[in-house]
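= Paired protein data =
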Amino acid sequence: MSLRAAFMRTVLLGLALCMNAPSEAQERVYRRGDANANGSIDISDAVYVLNFLFNGGPAPACSPIANANGSGGVDISDGIAILSYLFGGLDSLPPLTEAEIEICESPVVPTVVRHGSFLNVSEPSHAISGRVEELSDGTIRITNFFYDGEGVPRVVVFLQEVGWGDTLGCVISEDLLRTTPYRGENMTYTIPPGDQKCDTFRYVTIYCDFFPQPYAYTRMVDGPFP
């Protein structure tokens, strides 16, 4: 190949790369399930979510995208939803709402408004523990969560104003019962906006609504963990 031909080939290759490379000015397309924000949905997104939940990995840059099943929180069911979407059983993931896209386009690092730690109150004890934080973005973050996963349907994360003996409040999670224990997991749930039963909560409870009976609870204290 002549020097001239080699030069022209290099120029054409460079032009092709420039044409195909995404421009910073291009509008980014947000897709639910793209937890690692690499522009596609693949098995690495499920791994990213599970690594965040169980191994202390980095948090997703945008929680609504990592909330693959659209349930309102990021937990193990989102990793399962991504795998089901990729390998069969789930035809599609819910589209992002305009409000969720706005959150992703204008990310704000949330601050801790209140905090607490779970205290067991049930008999027999389910040995529940974990740290609880209320964040300024309207979410409840539970970290290092331990629970045997057993009980009588349903067991949920419940926000209450009064605490022990109070049956008024709001549910913010799916059913927590499952066949495998929670061992140091991290979970994030959205506080339902505009729900008056959630506006004045002072307690976060792991709550069995069959009896009803709290399995564990914490009273929230102002500020972050010391």
